[in-house]
Amino acid sequence: MILIIVTIAIIVSFIILAYRAFISRIMKEKNVQHEAEVLHQKKLALENIKAQEEERKRIAVMIHDDIGNRLNILSLWLNNLDTKGDELIKKNIHSQMSSLVDAARSISHSLYPVNLESVGLVLYAEELIANLSHKINISLQVMPGYEKKDIFVEVQLYRIIQEFTTNVIKHSTATDLWIYIKDYRQNMAVVISDNGQGFEYEEVKKGMGIKNIESRIKSMNAVHKWKKSFLNKGSRLIIKIPKHHEFPNQNSTN
């Protein structure tokens, strides 16, 4: 009888251990499958963002280099045009040409930051801040040791800053906005915050502004957090971008 009980106990223990091992394997496979799906979604976001940026860049460069230059040449011709003393006509034409040049530059800039590759994120962000200084006070703090990133990351960060700032100006009563950038050994941290009325994330997460920001964050294989903001306390976005933001090979994850 004792031998039978011991045998049954061993069999039951074996069954329990085998069941636990089976469940553990199933859970592990599900986790691997989930991680692969998340990685796939991130890669799709990256490809989509890259395709959009390439098309934006093509149009922006065309406007900036072709149309913009042609308008500048026409403006120079107008300056040398003999209008037989009719300075009013000349002045009006010159004014319209200047407006067209500014409009072409503005459209090009909004489509793609054409000069960012040459001047870098920091200087380009400072130019954005200067252009918006009449609407809101923006403070940019870049900690010592910041290293220039590859063009894709810097364009995405610039777009995020631009989108966040635009949303704050349009939908918030904020008077101040702060941008903090710091390089760490393994990642880069970017914090953007304002002193507006804040928002409830669940209520606005489907908006195009939030979607665009989060899509760009995902394309950099980065993580982020919208700090829970209480009304009238402003909002804060915290982003951590890995130094090596490239996605691992899909085959290595399966």
Shape from CA axes?
elongated
How many separate helices?
Answer: 7
| Count of the domains | 2
Give the strand order of the largest sheet, numbering strands 1, 2, ... along the chain.
1-2-3-5-4
Number of extended strands: 5
Stretches with pLDDT under 50, minimum 5 residues: 247-254
CATH topology of the largest domain: Heat Shock Protein 90
- The appropriate CATH architecture of the largest domain is 2-Layer Sandwich
Q: How would a crystallographer describe the biggest sheet?
A: 5 strands, mixed
Run of helices and strands: HHHHEHEEHHEE
The Rg value, from CA coordinates, equals 28 Å
User: Which structural category fits the helices and strands?
Assistant: alpha+beta
Please state roughly what percent of the residues sit in beta strands, choosing from under 5%, 5-15%, 15-25%, 25-35%, 35-45% or over 45%: 5-15%
Distance between the termini: 50 Å
**CATH hierarchy, class of the largest domain:** Alpha Beta
CATH superfamily of the largest domain: Histidine kinase-like ATPase, C-terminal domain
Catalytic activity: ATP + protein L-histidine = ADP + protein N-phospho-L-histidine
Enzyme class: transferase
Transmembrane segments: 6-23
InterPro entries: HATPase_C_sf (IPR036890), HATPase_dom (IPR003594), Sensor_HK_TwoCompSys (IPR050482)
